[in-house]
C-alpha cells in the first residue's frame, strides 16, 4: 500500500498538506495549554464540590503524591479530574487546531509532565499517575482525532485517507 502511494506516476507527495508557520503552531500550542489548564481547574473545582472536600488544592493538576487508594477522596478527585480534563480537552483541541490533534495532545502532555516536575520539584515515579496520564492521553487523542475527522471531512488531508 505504501509503495503504491509513493510510486505514483506524477510523483506527488503522499500527504498533501499545507505547511503551517511557526507562529501559528506556537499560538495554537499556547491556546491548547490555556484550554488544558483552564478545563483542569474548572473540572477539579466541580469534583471538589461534588466530593465535599474541605480544602481546594491549587496544585491539583500537578499532584502525583496523593496516596492512591479507593478510600482516599482526594485521590479520586485528582483521578477523575485528570481523566475528565483529558476527555474534554481532546474535544476542544479539535475545535482549535482541526488537524493533528494527536500532535498537540502529545506536546501538551509532555509539557504537563515537565511543568509537574518543576512545580513538585520531583519527577513523578508513581505508576498509577503514569497509567492515568497514559489513559487520559489515549482518550484525548481518540476523541480529538474523531471530532477533527468528522468535522473536517471536506479538507483534502482527510478525504485522501478515505480512498484507501
Automatic annotation (TrEMBL):
<keyword id="KW-1133">Transmembrane helix</keyword>
<feature type="transmembrane region" description="Helical">
    <location>
        <begin position="104"/>
        <end position="121"/>
    </location>
</feature>
<feature type="transmembrane region" description="Helical">
    <location>
        <begin position="25"/>
        <end position="51"/>
    </location>
</feature>
<feature type="transmembrane region" description="Helical">
    <location>
        <begin position="127"/>
        <end position="150"/>
    </location>
</feature>
<keyword id="KW-0812">Transmembrane</keyword>
<feature type="transmembrane region" description="Helical">
    <location>
        <begin position="75"/>
        <end position="97"/>
    </location>
</feature>
<dbReference type="Pfam" id="PF09801">
    <property type="entry name" value="SYS1"/>
</dbReference>
<keyword id="KW-0472">Membrane</keyword>
<dbReference type="GO" id="GO:0016020">
    <property type="term" value="C:membrane"/>
</dbReference>
<protein>
    <recommendedName>
        <fullName>Transmembrane protein 244</fullName>
    </recommendedName>
</protein>
<dbReference type="InterPro" id="IPR019185">
    <property type="entry name" value="Integral_membrane_SYS1-rel"/>
</dbReference>
